[in-house]
Amino acid sequence: MSELRLVVVGAAGRMGRMLTQTIPDTLGVRLVGALEGAGSSSLGADCGAAFGLPATGVAITSDIAAALAEADAIIDFSTPAATIAVAKAAAKARVAHVIGTTGLSADELGLIAEEATETAVVRSGNMSLGVNLLAVLIEKAAKALGPGWDAEIIEMHHKLKVDAPSGTALLLGEAVALGRGIALAEHSARGRDGLTGPRKAGDIGFAALRGGTVVGDHTVIFAGMGERIEFSHRAEDRGIFARGALAAALWTRGRGPGLYSMADVLGLTCA
Ligand SMILES: NC(=O)C1=CN([C@@H]2O[C@H](COP(=O)(O)OP(=O)(O)OC[C@H]3O[C@@H](n4cnc5c(N)ncnc54)[C@H](OP(=O)(O)O)[C@@H]3O)[C@@H](O)[C@H]2O)C=CC1
Ligand SMILES: O=C(O)C1=N[C@H](C(=O)O)C[C@H](O)C1
Fold this sequence. Notes:
Bound molecules: NADPH dihydro-nicotinamide-adenine-dinucleotide phosphate, ligand LZUJQKHR
Strand content: 15-25%
Number of strands: 12
C-alpha cells in the first residue's frame, strides 16, 4: 500500500515540530506539506531544518489549497481560526482532518460537524492512549458512584497555553457527564471566585493552573462523604500526542465522512 501523504498545520509550533520529528519513525506515512499562518516568519523555510531537525524537503507555506492538493490527511495542532480555515478547505478537497486544536467555541464545533459531512474528521482534546483510556474509566466510575460524589477536575499546563480549561479537562468532564447521563454544559462550574456560596449538587468543577514547562497534568477527583478517589494522568512528552495523531491519520484511510473520536480510533468503548 502507498504511504499516507500528510500535511501538518501549525508546523512551526510545539506540536508541529514534534510531528515533523515523529513522522520519519512512523511506518506508512510521508510528510508532503507544512502550513503556517500568512504572517509567519517561518514561511519558505524547510519545516525540519528550520528547527534543528533533519531536513524534510518540505517548505512551510500558508497556501492551504496548494498544500492539500497532494494530501491524503491533515494533522492539525494550531489555533481555532486556522483549524476552521483548514476545515473548509479539507471538506472541499475531501481530505481527512485530524484535529488536536483545543479552545474551539460552540459555533466552531458546529462548523467542524459540517466538515464531517464531507470528509473523515477525528477530533480529540487529547490524542494519547493514556488519557483516552482514563476517560473510559472515569465514565464507569461516575456511573457507579452517582452524582452524590462531587466531581472536580484539576489541570496544569505550561505557561504558554492560551485556552482554559484544557481540551483534556473538557473531555474528562464529558466522560463524567456521560457516566451520569447529564449534559456537561448544564452542570459545569468553571472559574469559582469570591463569595461563591456552597457547591451546587451535581456540578462538575474545573480548575486550571498554568506555569513553567508542564506538558499536561490532569486529575479527576470524586469526593464523597469521608473518602476521595483520584484518577490522574501526567504527560511527560509531546510524543504521545504526535503518535496518537499519526495513528488517527492512518485510521482515516478508506474511511467515509463522519466525526470520529480517539475512542473510535483506539477501539475504546464503555460497556
Ligand atoms: N489534542 C491533543 O492531544 C493536543 C492538543 N494540543 C493543542 O494543539 C494546539 C497547538 O498547541 P501547540 O503546538 O502547543 O501550540 P503552538 O502555539 O506552539 O503552535 C501552534 C502553531 O500554529 C500556528 N498558526 C497560527 N495561525 C495559523 C494559521 N492560520 N495556519 C497555520 N498555522 C497557524 C502558530 O503560529 P504563530 O505562533 O506564528 O501564531 C503556531 O506555530 C493548541 O490548541 C493545544 O491546546 C496540544 C497538544 C496535544
Ligand atoms: O496545549 C497543550 O500543551 C495541550 N493541550 C491539550 C489540552 O488542551 O488538553 C492536550 C495536552 O494536555 C497538551
